[in-house]
Amino acid sequence: MTHERTPRQIKFGAILTGTGGPGDQLRWLDPEIPGDASVDIDWYIEYARLAEEAKFDLVFIVDSQFITPHSPPHYLNRLEPLTLLSALAVSTSRIGLVGTATTSYNSPYNLARRFASLDLISRGRAGWNVVTSGDAGTAGNYSRDEHFDYPTRYRRAAEHIEVSQGLWDSYEDDAFPRDRETKVFLDPAKLHELNHDGEFFQVVGPLNIQRSPQGQPVIFQAGDSNDGRDLGGRYADGIFTFTPSIADGQAFAADIRSRAAAVGRNPDHVLILPGARIVVGDTDDDAREIERAQHELSNSFEITLAELGRPFGWHDFSGYDLDAPFPDVLHLAEHSFRTQAEAIVAAARKDDLTLRQVVERRAALHPSPFVGSAKTVADTIQEWFEAGAFDGLNVFVSHPAQFRRFVAEVIPILQERGLHRSEYEGTTLREHLGLPFPANRYTVSATRVEQTANAASLSTAH
Amino acid sequence: MTHERTPRQIKFGAILTGTGGPGDQLRWLDPEIPGDASVDIDWYIEYARLAEEAKFDLVFIVDSQFITPHSPPHYLNRLEPLTLLSALAVSTSRIGLVGTATTSYNSPYNLARRFASLDLISRGRAGWNVVTSGDAGTAGNYSRDEHFDYPTRYRRAAEHIEVSQGLWDSYEDDAFPRDRETKVFLDPAKLHELNHDGEFFQVVGPLNIQRSPQGQPVIFQAGDSNDGRDLGGRYADGIFTFTPSIADGQAFAADIRSRAAAVGRNPDHVLILPGARIVVGDTDDDAREIERAQHELSNSFEITLAELGRPFGWHDFSGYDLDAPFPDVLHLAEHSFRTQAEAIVAAARKDDLTLRQVVERRAALHPSPFVGSAKTVADTIQEWFEAGAFDGLNVFVSHPAQFRRFVAEVIPILQERGLHRSEYEGTTLREHLGLPFPANRYTVSATRVEQTANAASLSTAH
């Protein structure tokens, strides 16, 4: 099964994290970044507007819901993503607004309603990055003794998405005549109960909110494990991942697209947008020097040691003998980020590493492929994109000066080459991403009934 | 126990409902109101800004989460309150932002986090109107066979508030040194777990967000039953109610304040803000004529019959014999708005009413006390306020022209009389309402420890 890829442009997301992100926990040491950026709405508005001026497709907000006094800065203090994005919705006019929310600790009715509200407030620009929560400690904040195990989390996520998408179709698009002459506000035949009765959720519906100009919020997915990929292939419009090389990107894209095709979807309707650290300098050497200086500022053995604990349920490694072999802790990852934990343990076993060596390897500078002069960065992005390593990039906006350089120097080159839009063509996130408008399932059914009737009458005519 | 009332001004809230509200379901027939006002963020922004120009204390968003195809317009299609208020937060700068959220179908960690985010985004202007959900059908949207019964709902509400307030204090106000010299972001001694283990919730904490400039969101409460009043007296800073007469208002205020005093609170720190329908005309007669014309436009036997079903679990009365005695349906209110239902049944029994008569009485024009020329309305508000019938009014913004007249004609009179502010004195909702800043419980404890130590050393000195 082959699919003609239509001529495309590169999609761009801006990951707004405030005071730094994973692997970049000391970014707040830079005097250019307000120490409270992660809870400062003005910081988010400023960079969302800058991304919009650069005609980005979307901003992207990550999330987590479990901290300890030893959590790195990025996790400690942050705005809840949908509240944050709603403020951005009325501070921007075109850019998409993608927020992370967990299916493990939300009710579908509540969450679907909040995304539908964001979608209406933004006039069709909302996206939901579906996660299942890898921090096992989150359970303790939600009256549960234990976090859901891995397969349960993904079954629950799938059902959660199904219920949400069902609720989002509660009203057909022409459900409200609002006819002042006849005094008819609603056509009750176009309001539908869901009556979902599943393994995790029983939801009668209907949802008390109409659809937005893009029909339904766009679905993103961010888990890289096998079940995560299945979930992405089945439901996601966009995938957030990490792509260390062109070959990795090609393999990942092929894998996701084959999973999408296997469930009958058009694989071109799944866009892959890995996260990217981009550094622009006057020359390639200058850029590598900036990258090195940034790494030096943000490098910390202690924080890397603390972050290493995350895939193992935020396990505290600080009491271990640093020079003993990497400890036998894989069982701690059971309900956490198991795929990540397995990769860490496998690498340690393979090279017979101590805990110190594991931390030092993680803390070392891992050069980004997207570092160089503006032209070099543009060339590299173009090369990877044209090789099919990704459909676009989710750019980490951790360093304001660097983001401004990317927008001012690299984006114009890509625009000149026809690889990035110079103006928004549409108004909705779905339009930006080139995704089809999802017809309401109940309206679709009516059309299908018609088609079936036509087919029947055709066969009668023979 | 008597309490000196400090000289006060009248507090004003604006209830923004979009297309009308309870008892005013056909308001959307007015061509001045967009038919989709209840999901149009621009409508909300316009009236929030108008209320802010008039130096109102707050806007107030009501809510519900259960509809059927026969629900009146007001319930059918609405934005989720916190998403809505976050958009208003960055569209205004001073006015308070109070949103309704149910304790029956939210997790405290999620909800506390969302209100804390709104509080930070608005720089200290968030308020939570605590409700327990009277629509029994809501259970079906949240995977429950049955709605919580009345006493359970209120026990759960109390615990939900306690947990939320505990989570909101997770960080002491000086928890983040964010010292670039020493690279210290957090003082871990100032981050506190809650470790709540109660009847309904087990929440370890801490919450992953700092406190706002007002310390914690303001608590409102809107249930008028006995348990609702207890909850309000114990926890609420503001009470949303209905006050048909000065005497009723005085009795209600005395009741709430005695409940507050009984649990050791300063009764002056509970403000009573009934909802008010205000109609301003050129003369008193003109205003009564506007009120009559408004009622005529919005009056509907069918919709009143449908709304009558709400306290009885949205019972469908349409199949009943309208001219038979009011049916025996009180048992249907078991898990719904029982107090309201009891009042309806008692009135019907007392006067031996048929179902038609009950509906006709409800549908009839109930003149508002706040109808007249601007001077008359100002006089009446002043009289009720000075008699202690309320601390302020929550004004229904159902008719835009009327709200504009109130703001343009009545507010200046009250300002001239010193009964309403001409400028905001503070920046937070708590400051607007004259409520004290809530010290962080852990910082308070430290102070208490100090005081105890001082007391001990004093007694040693004796």
Task: Describe the protein's architecture and organization.
The structure is a homodimer of 462-residue chains. Chain A is of the alpha/beta class and 462 residues long. Chain A has two domains: 11-285 and 366-432, TIM Barrel (Alpha-Beta Barrel); 300-363, no CATH class. Chain A is built from 15 helices and twelve strands. Chain A has helices at residues 41-53, 73-76, 81-89, 108-121, 150-168, 226-235, 246-262, 284-298, 301-308, 338-351, 355-363, 374-386, 400-416, 429-432, 441-461, and strands spanning 11-16, 58-61, 96-102, 126-131, 196-197, 202-203, 218-221, 238-241, 271-276, 279-281, 371-373, 392-397. In chain A, the strands form three sheets. In chain A, strands 1-2-3-4-7-8-9-12 form an eight-stranded parallel barrel, surrounded by five helices. Chain A has a two-stranded antiparallel sheet with strand order 5-6. A two-stranded parallel ribbon of chain A has the order 10-11. In chain A, α4 (108-121) packs across α5, α5 (150-168) packs parallel to α6 (226-235) and α12 (374-386) crosses α13. The two termini of chain A are 32 Å apart. The relative contact order of chain A is 0.14. Chains A and B meet through α2, α3, α4 and β6 of A and α2, α3, α4 and β6 of B. Chains A, B: InterPro entries: Diverse_substr_monoxygenases, Luciferase-like_dom, Luciferase-like_sf, NTA_MOA. Chains A, B: Belongs to the NtaA/SnaA/DszA monooxygenase family. Chains A, B: One of its GO terms (molecular function) is monooxygenase activity. Chains A, B: Residues 40-389 form the Luciferase-like domain. Chains A, B: Pfam families: Bac_luciferase.
